[in-house]
């Protein structure tokens, strides 16, 4: 599905011309396509529904990728669950209409208050990442007179071959418990009075375009499940985490959900395990773009710069992970291109959204920074007292504001000066 395409020489989101959105809501603006969001989730649901091992599977969207209520609400309506990493995300998904019994709680640092909140809500599972966390949860659940359903996040020590900042399943990572310790930890968990062992979990990294490391990780986890069964510890669900990559640039090939899931489901056939998945980027990444306007063209001594009204505070992926985002003119000109560093107004050399991009542009032109639906707005900040962008969702010919542009007053509303 191509939610963003040129029609009569103008880039559209579904049936809406992007210049119309810029006129109405100003720039920078995050623009999402409802159809693309829904298609991405359906692709997962369809593959799971077509495979016997997919029966009862739960797709828990990783909220961190894009936490807008409208996005969460669309996914909840289609039956998705949610993977959360904070009490804030729990509150968000509940506000968006999520079923708490479809929520898994990941993360290495769950606080007492967050555990209480999740136990009261009645979530599906806590993904436990350390012994002290397990003990704390047992205690908190005991105080509330509850049993906490858990899985251990096991580190399969598989190299996902992605950017080091988003590799999580290696021995050196702060995430999960060591593979070799898992059996003993499960025995300990099984003996705790307020803990109910229900599943097993792993997440090896993000933006994987080669699905083979997922299969490797699954083999290791299945071997562990067999060991646990021999020790009398039954596992009911297997959470394979998120991590399936998206196509950010022309030369990349995005594996289909079928190519990712079917080999995993084949291995799971006949085991009676409920499958849980935690995709984030894959469900939202290519369903959003960042719409921005060229403020100035600056022809420097060594380089040409396009200074735009979006910046690293709006989209930090290029600065933080060398992330590549295609940058397309909204109304392409037939003129010759020049290589521009596309930069924002922030006082940092790292404030760029793309380097040496061949573009034919003039001041005032609109640009679309593509594949920005995941970890875009979710990681936006107010650095340089820049209000965060407006977010709109296009649905056919309709445009809905799903988050208003912040005002500067909102940014300092919680601040105060000393009395004297
Ligand atoms: N589950 C767990 C436990 C995770 O830590 C993550 C992502 C996911 C699921 C979702 O992974 P996904 O399907 O989106 O790859 N900000 C970085 C990505 C950080 C990913 C952190 N964990 C970026 O912009 O590339």
Element layout with pairings:
Layout: E1 4-7, E2 10-13, E3 16-17, H1 18-25, E4 29-33, H2 34-50, E5 58-62, H3 69-77, E6 81-84, H4 87-95, E7 103-105, H5 112-121, E8 125-128, H6 131-143, E9 148-155, E10 177-178, H7 182-191, E11 195-201, H8 212-230, E12 237-239, H9 257-268, E13 274-277, H10 281-284, E14 288-299, E15 304-308, H11 317-321, E16 327-329, E17 338-343, E18 352-359, E19 366-369, E20 390-395, E21 398-403, H12 408-412
Parallel strand pairs: 4-20, 5-6, 5-13, 6-7, 7-8, 8-9, 9-10, 9-11, 11-12, 12-13, 15-17
Antiparallel strand pairs: 1-2, 2-3, 4-14, 14-15, 14-19, 16-19, 17-18, 20-21
Helix pairs in contact: 2-9, 5-6, 8-9
The structure holds ligand LLP.
Ligand LLP binds next to helix 10 and helix 11.
């Amino acid at each position: 599905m191509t939610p963003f395409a040129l029609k009569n020489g103008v880039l559209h989101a579904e049936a809406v011309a992007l210049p119309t959105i810029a006129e109405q809501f100003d720039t920078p603006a995050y623009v999402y396509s409802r159809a693309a969001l829904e298609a991405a989730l359906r692709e997962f649901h369809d593959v799971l529904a077509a495979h016997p091992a997919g029966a009862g599977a739960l797709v828990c969207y990783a909220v961190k990728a894009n936490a807008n209520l409208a996005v969460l609400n669309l996914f909840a309506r289609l039956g998705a669950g949610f993977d959360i990493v904070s009490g804030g995300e729990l509150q968000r998904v509940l506000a968006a209409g999520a079923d708490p019994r479809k929520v898994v709680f990941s993360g290495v640092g769950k606080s007492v208050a967050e555990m209480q909140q999740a136990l009261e809500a009645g979530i599906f599972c806590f993904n436990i990442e350390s012994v002290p966390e397990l003990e704390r949860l047992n205690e908190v659940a005991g105080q509330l007179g509850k049993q906490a359903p858990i899985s251990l996040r096991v580190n399969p020590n598989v190299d996902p071959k992605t950017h080091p900042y988003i590799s999580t399943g290696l021995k050196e990572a702060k995430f999960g418990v060591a593979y070799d310790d898992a059996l003993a930890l499960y025995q300990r968990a099984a003996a705790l009075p307020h803990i109910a062992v229900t599943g097993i979990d792993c997440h090896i990294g993000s933006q994987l375009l080669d699905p083979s490391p997922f299969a490797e990780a699954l083999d290791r986890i299945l071997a562990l499940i067999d060991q646990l069964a021999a020790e009398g510890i039954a596992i009911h669900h297997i959470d394979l985490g998120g991590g399936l990559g998206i196509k950010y640039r022309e030369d990349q090939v995005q594996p289909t959900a079928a190519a990712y899931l079917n080999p995993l489901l084949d291995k799971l056939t006949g085991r009676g395990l409920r499958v849980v998945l935690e995709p984030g980027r894959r469900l939202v990444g290519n369903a959003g773009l960042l719409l921005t306007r060229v403020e100035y063209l600056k022809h420097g001594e060594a380089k040409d710069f396009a200074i735009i009204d979006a910046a690293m505070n709006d989209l930090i992926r290029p600065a933080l992970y060398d992330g590549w985002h295609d940058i397309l003119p909204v109304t392409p000109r037939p003129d010759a291109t020049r290589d521009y560093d596309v930069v924002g107004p922030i006082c940092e050399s790292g404030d760029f959204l793309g380097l040496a991009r061949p573009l034919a542009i003039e001041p005032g032109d609109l640009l679309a920074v593509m594949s920005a639906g995941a970890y875009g707005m979710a990681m936006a900040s107010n650095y340089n007292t820049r209000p965060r962008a407006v977010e709109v969702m296009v649905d056919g010919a309709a445009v809905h504001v799903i988050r208003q542009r912040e005002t500067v007053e909102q940014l300092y509303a919680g601040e105060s000066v000393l009395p004297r």
